[in-house]
Amino acid sequence: MRIALRVNGVEAEADCWEGESLLFALREKLGYPGSKNACEQGECGSCSVLLDGVLVCACLVLAAQADGHEVTTVEGLASDGELHPVQRAFVDAGAVQCGFCTPGLVVAAADLLERSSDPSDDEIREALSGNLCRCTGYAKILDAVRLAAQDRSG
Amino acid sequence: MNRLEAVTKDSLRPPPARARITAGGGWTSPPWAGSASGGAAAPCAEAGAGALPEGGGEGPAGAASTAAEVSTTAAPRRLEVGRIGEAVPRADGVPKVKGEFAYSSDLVAPGMLWGHTVRSPHAHARIVELDVSEAVAMPGVHAVLTHEDVPGAKTYGLEIPDQPVLAIDRVRYFGEPVALVAAEHPEQARRAAEKVRVRYEPLEPVVDVERATEGPELHPEGHALRRGFGSAELPNVVRRIVIVHGDPEAEGDVSVSGVYETGLQDQAFLGPESGLAVPDGEGGVDVYVATQWLHIDRAQIASCVGLEPERVRVHLAGVGGAFGGREDVSMQIHGALLALRTNRPVKIVYSREESFTGHVHRHPSRIWAEHRATREGKLVCVRMRVLLDGGAYASSSTAVCSNAASFACGPYNVPNARVEATAVYTNNPPCGAMRGFGAVQTCFAAEAQMDRLAAALGIDPVELRLLNALAPGDTLPTGQRIDGSLPVAEVIRRAAALEPPPPEELPRDPLRLPGGAGNTTRGEGVRRGVGFAAGFKNLCFSEGFDDSCAARVRLLSDGSAEVHCAAAEVGQGVSNVILQVARTELGIDDVRLAPHTTATVGSAGSTSASRQTMMVSGAVREACRAALAEREARGGGEVDVERVYRHAPTSPLDPVTGRVTGERAHVAFGACAMKVVAEVDVELGLTRVVWVGAAQEVGRALDPRAVEGQVEGGIAQGLGLALMEEIQTRDGLIANASFTDYLIPTALDMPPVETVLIEDPEPSSPYGVKGVGEPPAVVSTAAAVAALRAATGRELPRAPVRLDELAGL
């Protein structure tokens, strides 16, 4: 079937097999491999995207379900060549190691800061508890989110 | 009609070309090079752009202008990092946060096929019949391969080539590869795989580690070394080591003993096994893969596909974590076989479920220990028996066994000891390398023993450890004298001095109680405990292994330099180390890092055993100095030199006595100590780790923030083994191959960590540097379970601790 959607503000179309997830379509058909395929079971959050502004795991959404909708991926966060404050903070805080979880965490953290401009540590931990990271132990990720919150408010 | 067949024509055609991988050369820019202006585009950066199939309309229009080929002539981009000792931004940080870093599962090539692996549903069975005729005829299928299609060696392995590329007449573990399929769409490949007819005759699986040596022999060909214990010719022994030190019958005033177990832990790296194999059109193949050691992959691929090593080039694709789980090959040989057979690029990406069977795990262990000491607390004798379940194939079991034996007594001065370590074959999932291997298991037992001894003697556990702490000049049970840096007492003192936060008042937000958002308690039944542990491990490869690392430095006429090194960047930051060392040695900023590949430089050895920072530092330093000397001798001009660094030689342990046969079996050591505060709901068995304080000696921190990241990450993996991580098997079959059922710590499970780095330069090492990745993972399981014991008063002899044990059910 043919699907048409907006990805990061750009109209896109693709022919998909009905069983394909939005994640597969983004990565393999539409040219947005930034969302990651760590579990494809909805457990790790590495494929987190915004679907009509709502944080979802792209692996749990069928490509067909996204037909006619708006998707924002990690590739769509930076604007005019400037990193999103969360992206900048992840680099500056040393929150990136292997980086496979990073795109999902960046999208989830950006979503958190849209909803809560000055989150407590507990809020950050809960908001990011659906995003698994195996390298960092999360300490520098928390630093990054705090830093991004400061940047945005400052 | 098959639904998939119906859509084949349009939706399953080859995807848009993005990573135009030039056959024969691979890309010459690092995977992150495309992220900034002026560099070659990364495979991922031009994703979806450019050569769209006619009428496709896929791909964001806005990205089309970024279309670029990864050519063999593209110049590597200059990377912004500083000199050694500085906290510097990761060279690959920006592309990673933008989603532009090309991981091994992101690669695409024109005309690419998808590979899929047919795996055994049995832990142990004879293959009676294997029929691929129906699968071959499925839509979109280009090849179906079995062991008969393996043109070279039929088996491979890191130390012992006992593992079939594809099962021959027998399967020995659940998930063992039996056949391969290549098709145009991954779903076609999966469906064709279902049509491969394999008739199995199930055999009784050997799953009880204590009865493995009773047989039947799982490798009747006799692959195992059986070196170690006199003439022991027991079935299924991969390796047995017995270390006899002093008088192992020596008695003390006090004796404590215990039996301990650790479970089957998974590396659970987030990037699944994946890669792309591209035929070069001349009978050779390029393999782009996430691995820990490019050159050993090449050796194994070349051997099995029957090619000269030069005709196989292995290039590092972005690695989504490793932790030991990428030391053995996964899809490398399979991808190369399919690519050479179909003459098309072939991509293989494991699912998460498949990943649980696609790599080796941490050896489960069973350990019997007895510690004898004087009334004053001086250790007199340690007696320990360690049994390691190696699973179906050897992998690195021999080295894991060696480490378990070498570090069984912990970082303490032990005058008399008898340590026996045995790794056996079973039909359980194969085990091999995982962060801290061998030392994690014995640290768990040895540190529990030290706490028991402290309790029996009425001595403070930290004092007991200090009283027995190893120091330079002391002798290990193997007879090796410690001649380098090992400030154990300092590490223990500094960790003990860290002050945990005071107990939190009640009532509290449920998130800050055991059970968390489950809202299971208001604080009643919650007990707080503080645990302490110390441990150590070898750094670099040991026991006579010819451990080397090559680096190549080109000084160019424009004043810049280019460094080639095949060391695998797995997320730990070795790319930064290479550049920091080169900038420091060359005294210039304009240093570029060429792609990590077998094509342009010799082997760097493995990114494992906490060795790569030490080895790369040595190799890059030597190559830089040689390049400067050569330019000086020539009076200027461009130079291009390659140098190979080796650390001081080691020698094997004596197969009969377990003693060192030369000066040393291990070249250097790293020690760590930790204090953990935990709360336990003793009614429900739920836990909350409140705080971790860690002290680690690191030689010299080349980048302190990166070192902290290693410590924090290592602690998280150790807490996982303490609290939640275990692959569940039933008769050898894995029952929880998903992140739904195999839990790893989340941001809610990980407490704040306070880290102290102690710099005590290693005299034998470049810049005094030490590897840092493993020691925290060695210690944190022991320290966390000690805190749970303190909170509950229970023995808790097993990691991961089970809820019913904590609740006393």
Write structural notes for this entry:
The complex is a heterodimer of chains A (154) and B (809). Chain A has 5 helices and 5 strands. Chain A is of the alpha+beta class and 154 residues long. Chain A has a 5-stranded mixed sheet with strand order 2-1-5-3-4, with helices on both faces. The longest helix of chain A is centred in the C-terminal third of the chain and has 15 residues, at 139-153. In chain B, β20, α12 (574-586) and β21 form a beta-alpha-beta unit. In chain B, α9 (439-457) packs parallel to α15 (775-792). The model of chain B is unreliable at 1-80 and 227-231 (pLDDT under 50). The chains are: A alpha+beta (154), B alpha+beta (809). Chains A and B meet through β2, α1, α2, α3 and α4 of A and α1, α2 and α14 of B.
Summarize this structure briefly.
The complex is a heterodimer of chains A (154) and B (809). Chain A is an alpha+beta fold.
Alpha-carbon distance between the two ends of chain B: 55 Å
Q: Taking strands numbered 1, 2, ... along the chain, how are they ordered across the largest sheet of chain B?
A: 3-7-1-14-11-12-13
Strand arrangement, largest sheet of chain A? 2-1-5-3-4
The coarse overall form of chain B would be: globular
Helical content band of chain B: 10-25%
Apparent shape of chain A: globular
As a whole number of angstroms, the C-alpha radius of gyration of chain A is: 15 Å
Summarize the topology.
The complex is a heterodimer of chains A (154) and B (809).
Chain A lengths: L1 E6 L2 E6 L6 H8 L18 E4 L2 E4 L12 E3 L12 H8 L9 H14 L5 H7 L11 H15 L1
Parallel strand pairs in A: 1-5
Antiparallel strand pairs in A: 1-2, 3-4, 3-5
Chain B lengths: L2 H9 L81 H6 L14 E7 L5 E7 L1 H4 L4 E5 L9 E2 L6 E2 L5 E2 L5 E7 L2 H9 L2 E6 L34 E9 L8 E9 L11 E6 L5 E5 L4 H12 L6 E5 L15 H11 L3 E4 L2 H7 L6 E9 L5 E11 L7 H10 L9 E9 L14 H19 L3 H8 L19 H10 L28 E14 L8 E8 L5 E4 L9 H13 L4 E3 L18 H23 L4 E8 L21 E14 L4 E12 L6 H20 L5 E2 L2 E2 L18 E6 L16 H18 L5 E2 L3 H5 L2
Parallel strand pairs in B: 1-14, 10-28, 12-13, 16-17, 20-21, 24-27
Antiparallel strand pairs in B: 1-7, 2-6, 2-8, 3-7, 4-5, 9-17, 10-15, 11-12, 11-14, 15-16, 18-23, 19-20, 19-22, 23-24, 25-26
